[in-house]
Amino acid sequence: MNSKTLRFLAAAAPLAAMLAIAPAAHAELEKCGGIFLSADASCEFHKAEDCTETCKTVSVDESCTAMLYTMCDSNCSMTETTDCTQTCAPTCQTECTATPMQTSDDICRSDCMSDCNTKCDSAASPECCKHACPYTCNKQCEDKCHDDDQMTDCAPKCTTACTGSCTSKSNTQCQVDCQTTQWEQCKTTTRQECTKSCTDKGGAIVCNGEFVDASDLKDCADELASAVSIDINVDVDVNATVKTVTKKADDAAKTTKTSVSCAFAPSTPAKGGLWFAALLGGSLFLRRRKNRDAR
Predict the structure, then answer these.
(1) CA of 122: how far to CAs of 44, 84, 125, 277, in Å?
(2) How far apart are the C-alpha atoms of 89 and 104, rounded to whole Å?
(3) Global pTM?
């Protein structure tokens, strides 16, 4: 083999290698609108949802009471006093004997609620107190007493009821004082409860920042996987999600919708033209070298 032939083969080798890998590196994807992609392309699925948000006015007093109780709870963890339990015991015994089928929870709530009437008459914010005090009684009695001990003897039942009632009384004053400082502010910020429901509306495949004009997303995804080894998860099943949030007073009920436009013009398959131009350029280069050597 002469030196000219060797030089020709050496110059042609890179082009031959490029031509050999070209079909594997790039592919025309018919199911994806005829686009040309390489294996290093970046593709992902963008889900589209149709969302509707509806709002309704809720009880501000109930909402604030529950929220402020939780906020104040860590600072209001007093226990029953001996004086309270000693005063409660004979009263409870009399009531239990007269109405034996009451539970310790019933007795606790009744005693604690009576105390609320006295507290709220002289409270700094009677409006706050008439919500905070009963709410605290119910929560504390529920935690300390039982709602299934109606068959229990009065003595042990009253021990439980008085412990719960006296603990409740100790904490109702703390809760009322704590909630009063935040009551007016809470009432101006908590007004509505809003629910957002979303339904899937399919979506679009995006490759290298552009929407793919695919008539069937799953077919396009399958072709991406088989032709250029790009795996994407196309989830087009219809389902609904519901989210509930608390809105401020000045946030009106509204409806929001989200959609995705899938308009996309397939790129001109210029990649093949580039390979042909490279090959033609190489051929012209080799021909010029051959003519020079012949001289």
Answers:
(1) 65, 20, 8, 95
(2) 12
(3) 0.47
